[in-house]
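Table S2 (text version). Query chain:
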Amino acid sequence: MQALRSVTAPIGAVATAVRRPETYAGHAREATSTLITAALWPLGMRDPGPVSFPPATEPSPVAAPVLLVHGFGANKSNWLLVRRAIEQAGFRRVHAVNYNPLAADIPELARRVAERVEALRRHYAVDHVHLVGHSLGGVIGRYAVSVDDTPGVATCVTIASPHGGVRLARHGSPLARLSPLAAGLQLRPDSDVMRRLRQAAASGPGDTRYVAYYSNLDLIVAARRAMIVEPELEATNVLVKDHGHLSIMLSRRLATSVVAQLGAVEGLAGYGAPVRQLPVTRGGDATVERAPAPAPGRAARR
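Corresponding structure-token output:
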């Protein structure tokens, strides 16, 4: 019976999708976003590093910096819309990092992100930073926080990030095979990196709040694989409906939600308190949602 379900479920999902006009609009939006992303790419090639940090004396309504980490093959130009929304909300200390996924593996890239987090904390003399990553960048950020135990990360936000791995990564790619350290190959569901992430989750979220965004039309990272499903991390998973892997980065809904999440953690007026998703437990064929018990010592940072 289970084998029959595994065969019929994808067929049913496809059949449902093709009957929705939003499906076609979403894929058209993804195609357009691919062209926009490619056109913006040359604008984000340069990364001068910490020397580009704005002066610590420059006023900012929110003291905490925000570090943005792009996805595989992209650069900091990917953050145009999201960055503008974050800055308009009062986060003026926003910094984006560039990296080459063909020149280093995920643990090494996570170490570099951790160094940038610490550099931001020292530069602005603050106790915490917010980390936001898209696709591979979200996995790198989560690895830095969860596996390497990088201190001072109040919020780890991931967008369309393959927390459950990507099946296509089993076969690698022509570009990935050029480098023995290619980070893309470590996105296999059974890779050591994915195993370490699952093991580290058992220690709980620590002082970091996890938020994962996913979409129903992402053809690169399926919705379930873009969610943080380990209950120990108490993650909030947020659906950005009818967007693809790249168009989600140009979504106003995403930008508004990311700002709301960060604003709530910082206690900004009008954003309320951080919201936690109800944990999902499965009993037989039914999915049951139960309200979590209050977690002591998990108050929002001010």
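Notes on Table S2: The first strand starts at residue 66 and ends at 69. The mean pLDDT is 82.
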